[in-house]
């Protein structure tokens, strides 16, 4: 059974950077489009970015130009590079295999001075 495990969250000052990783425990990872979602306290989960199996990407307007999603199929891993972080980026970040019930456990990102 494929599992997703996120890592890389933490506390960062506004304007700082973090790189999130989502490692999949399965060789079929490469066929899935993958996505990063986030959920802030009291808010609905929202799509942040997604990447197709062949590397095409799309982003929420709120993170365009600041976040970059990428994947390394040889390592069964998808990444989210987050730059110029803002307090409103504070949330739990989850990765998901699009169209599947596969979700990671989430990693907390807190942006605060």
Topology (elements, then pairings):
Elements: E1 4-7, E2 10-12, E3 18-24, E4 34-39, E5 46-51, E6 57-59, E7 67-72, E8 77-82, E9 91-97, E10 107-111
Parallel strand pairs: 2-10
Antiparallel strand pairs: 1-3, 3-8, 4-5, 4-9, 5-6, 7-8, 9-10
Parts with pLDDT < 50 across at least 5 consecutive residues: none
Counting H and I runs of at least 4 residues, what is the number of helices?
A: 0
How many individual β-strands? 10
Largest β-sheet summary:
6 strands, mixed
**Large-scale geometry:** globular
The strands making up the biggest β-sheet line up spatially as 2-10-9-4-5-6
Structure notes:
- The chain is globular.
- It is mainly beta and 113 residues long.
- A hairpin with a 6-residue loop joins strand 4 and strand 5 (46-51).
- The model has no long low-confidence stretch (mean pLDDT 94).
- The strands form two sheets. The protein has a six-stranded mixed beta sheet with strand order 2-10-9-4-5-6, with no helix packed on it. A four-stranded antiparallel beta sheet has the order 1-3-8-7, with no helix packed on it.
- It is built from no helices and ten strands.
């Amino acid at each position: 059974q494929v599992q997703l495990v996120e890592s890389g969250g933490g506390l960062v000052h506004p304007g700082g950077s973090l790189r999130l990783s989502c490692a999949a425990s399965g060789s079929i990872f490469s066929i899935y489009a993958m996505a990063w979602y986030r959920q802030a306290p009291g808010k609905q989960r929202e799509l942040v970015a997604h990447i197709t199996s062949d590397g095409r990407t799309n982003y929420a307007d709120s993170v365009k130009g600041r976040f970059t999603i990428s994947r390394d199929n040889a390592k069964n891993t998808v990444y989210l590079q987050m730059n110029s972080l803002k307090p409103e980026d504070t949330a739990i970040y989850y990765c998901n295999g699009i169209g599947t019930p596969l979700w990671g456990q989430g990693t907390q990102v807190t942006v605060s001075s």
